[in-house]
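Practice record 12: protein with protoporphyrin IX containing FE.
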Amino acid sequence: MSMKRYKVWDPLVRVFHWSLVLAFGANALLTDPESNLHEWIGYTVVALVALRILWGLVGSHYARFSSFLPSASGAMGQLSDLATGRRRVHLGHTPLGALMIYNLLLAMLAIGATGYMMTTNAYWGVEWVKELHEVLVTWAEISVVAHIAAVIWESLRTGVNLPRAMVSGVKTVPDGLNPEA
Ligand code: HEM
Ligand code: HEM
């Protein structure tokens, strides 16, 4: 089967993505939460997200928020594609993918904010802050599992290998499928 190739993810988006995976994964699974390392990696996550937000305003076409604004009608359209088995390929983020991205970015910032609060005199030892930090981490973990499942499902369904595109930057689309912006 022949394929068309579309360059979509610039290097910053790709390096951001896999750095975020490593940093979030390290803090969620590996670091001692009471260590300096935990705080440094946590602030690295916040810095990565801050950089990504800036890039969402001034970066390359598919990296910009304006190319994947939250859209109820877009999300409904994709849900109906899923329900009816319609193979529609989006070059940038899909509408449901976009909602997940905003969810993940906001969750990362909220985790960083509650983490920072625990280091301040005002909130040190305050139970609800610690609990909120943990609930947010659990929410982010559930979201990541859904994110990965969705990426795999959408890849199998459409024949476009999305994880590979997040590595190479290039989406390869089977001939006969006309991708939408
Ligand atoms: C801690 C785990 C993860 C987090 C926090 C995460 C977060 C994100 C974020 C924020 C984006 C948006 C990228 C951008 O535009 O800057 C994204 C996209 C994406 N992620 Fe992940 N991700 C995680 C794990 C993974 C894994 C393990 C895979 C591979 C199986 C994956 C595959 C993708 C793909 C393919 C996209 C682009 C989706 C599309 O084509 O629209 N992610 N992820
Ligand atoms: C993506 C970023 C982060 C992740 C995934 C994360 C994850 C976690 C997890 C899983 C725990 C353990 C909760 C438990 O005891 O069961 C925890 C606790 C904690 N985190 Fe984070 N965290 C992040 C960022 C931060 C940041 C930026 C700070 C501070 C600068 C921070 C400070 C703390 C503190 C003080 C605790 C409580 C330690 C204790 O008293 O038990 N975290 N975090």
